[in-house]
Design a protein that fits this description.
Length: about 400
């Protein structure tokens, strides 16, 4: 792998992390925001939802646009909008204004989530794509490690508004790297064949592609398990287990370390055993670890170190699930990689939103309901894998990836 390979992974990972960074870094600021703006907790939580919904849905628009205009122009638009909206958030004088600018932040941040995956598909396929995707995941995983810790430090030094100035600076850094270090990967000939009509046709094709949908939902259920943890862990770890915000930030980071460390084995394992086999075994290990966690905690062994150990193991397996499903889902759709990446991202985040809503309805402040929600997502991924992985098109995708 050349230095340009690693440089591409670094830049694409940073662009992908900008949106999630605005979520993870924001978590420790929520109590301070409510106090400063005189807002109720549900209104502050709405500012998180106001980011999450457009962040999921706007991907449907960025994908086709990146197929029509090239990859860089929509990235300039999205990251630029994110930066401007961050300034609006930092200057907000009431929670309604904050919610409005968070909505715009979500629209802008969606570009960084969907387009880098399409660029990976433009550049590579098969195991090489898996290697690049896993390196992208390595950089992307820095967000849940550093963002809560950075957010806590920024809040202490500059207050909650400093969080938004920090993500604005990150967005401008992304624009500089995009301008100076990343070349256009969508050729003019390929763009000439793309239009709104072809985008609609592409979405119809993808919705009829069982292989694409299967892999998308396997990855989506894996992502859902982590977002269920993200939404509930502040209350469980701080209120239930009594951690301080700083201790919580370290505890939150541990699972991300497991995720990105194991994800770096994707390329080597894929070359040795085939991507589908790696994905299938990883989903099995992920599911077994999370189910075992619920069983052990139900028997009364619900101390924090017990739960943390199972989460560390389970999310390590998830580090293999997400890059393999992402690469395999896009494998047969190089001509419409932007559109396919967009639909994959939206479906996965919508799945996660549903899972978060269901888990939230049963949450009682203790650890077991959260653990059960995580395990149900993992079992769902296993059921989808076991009932569909033997289909001919999935087998063909494995053969093409080897």
């Amino acid at each position: 792998m050349t230095s340009s390979f690693f440089r591409s992974a670094l830049i694409l990972g940073l662009l992908t992390a900008i949106g999630p960074f605005a979520i993870d870094m924001y978590l420790p600021a929520m109590p301070s925001i409510g106090q400063d703006l005189g807002a109720e907790n549900n209104a502050v939580q709405m500012s998180l939802l106001a980011f999450f919904i457009p962040f999921a849905v706007a991907q449907l628009f960025y994908g086709p646009i990146s197929d029509m205009w090239g990859r860089k122009a929509p990235l300039y638009m999205g990251i630029g909008l994110f930066a401007v909206a961050s300034i609006g958030c930092a200057l907000a004088s009431d929670v309604e204004t904050l919610i409005a600018f968070r909505f715009l932040q979500g629209i802008g941040g969606a570009a960084g989530m969907v387009i880098p995956r399409a660029i990976v598909r433009d550049m590579h396929t098969g195991v090489q794509a898996a290697r690049l995707m896993s390196l992208l995941m390595l950089v992307f995983s820095i967000s849940p490690i550093l963002a809560p810790l950075t957010g806590s430090a920024v809040i202490v030094l500059f207050g909650w508004r400093g969080v938004f100035w920090a993500v604005m600076i990150a967005a401008f850094l992304g624009l500089i790297l995009l301008s100076t270090q990343l070349t256009e990967t969508r050729t003019k000939d390929a763009r000439a064949e793309s239009g709104f009509g072809s985008a609609m046709a592409a979405y119809r094709l993808l919705f009829k592609d069982g292989n694409f949908l299967t892999l998308t939902f396997i990855g989506g259920l894996g992502l859902s398990s982590f977002l269920v943890y993200l939404a509930n862990s502040p209350f469980v770890l701080i209120n239930h287990y009594g951690l301080t915000p700083t201790q919580y930030s370290f505890a939150f980071s541990i699972n991300a370390v497991s995720f990105f460390a194991v994800s770096q084995l994707t390329g080597w394992l894929g070359a040795r055993y085939g991507l589908v086999r790696v994905m299938r075994n990883a989903v099995t290990g992920f599911s077994l670890a999370m189910v075992a966690m619920v069983v052990v905690m139900s028997l009364g062994f619900n101390q924090l170190p017990v739960m943390a150990t199972f989460l560390f193991i389970g999310y390590g397996f998830l580090g293999l699930v997400l890059p393999t499903t992402g690469v395999l889902a896009l494998e047969d759709h190089g001509e419409i990689a932007g559109t396919a990446s967009a639909l994959m991202g939206t479906l996965q985040f919508v799945t996660a939103a549903v899972a978060m809503g269901i888990a939230g309805a049963f949450f009682d402040g203790t650890a077991l309901p959260m653990a059960a929600g995580i395990a149900l997502c993992a079992v769902g991924a296993l059921i989808v894998t076991q009932t569909t992985v033997a289909r001919r098109r999935v087998v063909e995708a494995e053969a093409a990836a080897e």
